[in-house]
Amino acid sequence: MLHHRLLGYLDEVARSGSIRRAATRLNVASSAVNRQILSLEEEMGTPLFERLPRGLRLTAAGEVLVRHVRDTLNGHERMLAQVASLKGLTRGEVTVATMASIAAGVLPGVIGTFRETHPRIVVKVLVLPVDQIAAALLAGEADLALAYRLPPDPRMRCIAEFEHRLGAVMAPDHPLNGRYQVRMADCLEYPLVVADHSMTLRDVLELLVPEGTSFTPVVETNSIELMKRLAQTAPHITFVNLSDVGEEIRRGLLAFTPLSDASAIIQRASLMQRARSALDGPAHLLAVRIQAEFERQSVPD
What we know:
Order of helices and strands: HHHEEHEHHEHEEEHEHEHEHEEH
Shape: elongated
Protein name: DNA-binding transcriptional LysR family regulator
Helix content: 40-55%
Distance between the termini: 46 Å
Low-confidence stretches: none
Strand order of the largest sheet: 4-3-5-12-6
Organism: Methylorubrum thiocyanatum
Largest sheet: 5 strands, mixed
Oligomer: single chain
Strand content: 15-25%
InterPro entries: HTH-type_LysR_regulators, LysR_HTH_N, LysR_subst-bd, WH-like_DNA-bd_sf, WH_DNA-bd_sf
Family: Belongs to the LysR transcriptional regulatory family.
Mean pLDDT: 86
Number of helices: 12
GO molecular function: DNA binding; DNA-binding transcription factor activity
Radius of gyration: 27 Å
C-alpha cells in the first residue's frame, strides 16, 4: 500500500505542478508529500522535477517515470475491478455490437449464464449490419464487436477467432434428419428458407449450389429467427451455423446436419476490441464468457 501511495503522490504532483496543491487534493500534509518526492529522487539518483518560481515541472527523467507510474496505477485499478468481478461485486455495463444471426443464436445463452454469475452488470446488445459493427466499436459505441467476416483494421485487436461450418437445419421428423452429412443437392428437393442477399451467408450458400442446378428458395429473409421458426415445420430446410441453433437443438425443436459440400468452407467469427483501449472489468468478463462458449462449438482442429 505504501508503494501505491507513493505512486499516487508522484502522479498528483505532476498533474498539479505544485506540492501544496497536490497535498490539498490528497488531503495530506505538504511536508509528507515533499518528503516522499525527495526520497524518490534520491533513490532514482536524479531530479524528477525542476523547481521553478511558480511551481514544479517534470524533468525528462520525471516524464519517463510518470508514464510508467500512470500505466501501473491504471493496471492496478483494472486488477481490482477484475478481482471484484470474480467476487460478484462488479457493477457497470458492457455493450457488444453483433449481427442478427449471433444475436438470435448463441448470444442469448451466453448472456443468460453471464447474468447468473454477474447480476449487477448491465449488458447492452447492438444488432447491426456487418459493415456497421466495426464502426460502432471504433466510435466507442460498443466495448466488443462479435461477427462473421469482419474486415481487418489496425485500429481493432482480435481477442479470439472461432471457426464454424454450415449445416442444414430442419425439424427432427424431417426425412433427411439422421444422416451423418447431407449434400446441397439433397436439400434442393425440399422447400428452402434462406438468407437474402443482404446477408453474407447468402454468398456462401450460392457457392455450394451445383453448377447447372436451379436454386429457388421459397422464402428469402434477413431474419435468422424467421428462418429457424419456419425450419421447425417439415419439410422446410434452412442453412446456418451450429452455434446459431444450439438452444433449439437442446430443446428438441431443430436438428443440425453438416453439409458435405461445405467441408472446405469455414465461417470465421471474430471477437474484437479497440486496439488502444484496455477492457474494463465487465467487458473483460463478458469477453471471457463469449470465448468459452464459441470455442465449445467451434470446428475441432
